[in-house]
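Sequence only, no structure available. Ideas?
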Amino acid sequence: TRGPGEPARFRCDAKHVVLYPLVSKSLRNIAAGKDPLEGQRHCCSIAQLHDHYSLGYPDLDELQKNPQPLIFDIEVLKVEAPGSYQQDPWAMTDEEKLQAVPLIHKEGNELYRQGKVQEAAAKYYDAIACLKNLQMKEQPGSPDWIELDQKITPLLLNYCQCKLQCEEYYEVLDHCSSILNKYEDNVKAYFKRGKAHAAVWNVAEAQADFAKVLALDPSLRPVVSKELRSLEARLREKDAEDKIRFKGIFSQ
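Reply:
I predicted one. Tokens follow.
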């Protein structure tokens, strides 16, 4: 048993590390904040090895073609007791995922209130990933699938709010449209999609979404009116700029 700061070295023959390129790719995905199994099929390890002509890293491709003995230098950074830290979603059991979602959601809300929008979006994404992973194991349209989907929807709307503030409008359009394909009366999805449409100059689509918001919830008229006035002001400003630009072209 080694404590923090104590290094250890292990040498492994090639026959014991033939699958290491796939393991290394997963570790690199984890370091980049991605799913460690991203891009892999659901099959055995040997099939994975033959299925991946390229792992996306030249050094791993070479090691996969020509397995070599490897030396691993391992250093213990710190020792944490079980339950004293939050696992990444990919490492959780199904029960742990379900229990973690409300906590991750709460963390996202707190980060958003602090103005840390990117960090909040990452939390919402993690919570959605937990639920999506569980949902994949259910029959689409079944009661359990629908229950999970209804938990995903508010998280996805929070994620879209973050993306609106980060000016990633096309991602908002995609996610809100996916929600509305299933829940046609979701006012928040129409409103956020309307704002995204307005931001990318889809004027007719924005007006249609804001009209739908009013039809579903007339009490939101002051908020919708403000958005429409902002859109009209931007359109007038854009028209004025276009006239100046075109006038310069035609006067040459």
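The beta strands are 7-12, 70-75.
Hope that gets you unstuck.
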